[in-house]
């Protein structure tokens, strides 16, 4: 392996920019006279840890348990608050019944009627000048 290529791969490895294939090639293609890389390759090989087969399943299950507890607690708090709010609103709704008597309703109706004038609205007559499918032109008399 060329010395420049090895140095480039080592720099990439240190910066964390190598792919798994490049790392394997770097450590597998070590010559006998490159002792530093051989020591590093031996260290990496000895400390390599295989991931368990069902690691993702275990992780997701642990996440779901933690979020389920939090969600259950939040749902309980919100439902209790909603129940209390409903009871308070019903209590104040029945407590403040402000129903008007028949005479009061009649007086309010008569007051509202007196606000409108008795004059009838004049009917305006429109004369159509041009009428097509899209437009109607008319005058107002």
Describe this entry's structure for a reader.
The chain has 141 residues and is mostly helical. The protein is 62% helix and 8% strand. The protein has a two-stranded antiparallel ribbon with strand order 1-2. It starts with a helix and ends with a strand.
Helices, strands, pairings?
Elements: H1 3-15, H2 20-28, H3 35-46, H4 55-95, H5 102-114, E1 126-131, E2 136-140
Antiparallel strand pairs: 1-2
In short:
This protein is mainly alpha-helical and 141 residues long. It has helices spanning 3-15, 20-28, 35-46, 55-95, 102-114, and strands at 126-131, 136-140.
Strand percentage lies at 5-15%
Q: What is the N-to-C succession of helices and strands?
A: HHHHHEE
For the biggest sheet, the summary is: 2 strands, antiparallel
Kindly report the spatial arrangement of strands forming the biggest sheet. Answer: 1-2
Helix content: 55-70%
Structural class: mainly alpha
Query: What is the end-to-end distance?
Result: 102 Å
Look at the structure and give the mean pLDDT.
Answer: 78
| Tally of contiguous helical segments | 5
Gyration radius, to the nearest Å? Answer: 43 Å
Q: What is the number of strand segments?
A: 2
> Which consecutive residue ranges, at least 5 long each, have pLDDT under 50?
none
Shape: elongated
């Amino acid at each position: 392996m060329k010395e420049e290529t090895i140095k480039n791969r080592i720099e990439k490895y240190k910066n964390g920019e190598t792919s798994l294939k490049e790392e394997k090639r770097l450590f597998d293609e070590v010559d006998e006279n490159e002792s530093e890389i051989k020591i590093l390759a031996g260290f990496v090989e000895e400390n390599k840890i295989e991931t368990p087969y069902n690691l993702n399943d275990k992780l997701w299950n642990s996440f779901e348990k933690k979020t389920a507890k939090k969600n259950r607690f939040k749902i309980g708090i919100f439902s209790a608050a909603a129940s209390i709010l409903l009871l308070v609103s019903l209590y104040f709704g029945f407590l403040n019944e402000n129903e008007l008597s028949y005479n009061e309703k009649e007086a309010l109706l008569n007051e509202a009627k007196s606000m409108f004038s008795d004059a009838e609205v004049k009917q305006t007559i429109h004369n159509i000048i041009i009428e097509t499918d899209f437009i109607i032109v008319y005058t107002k008399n």
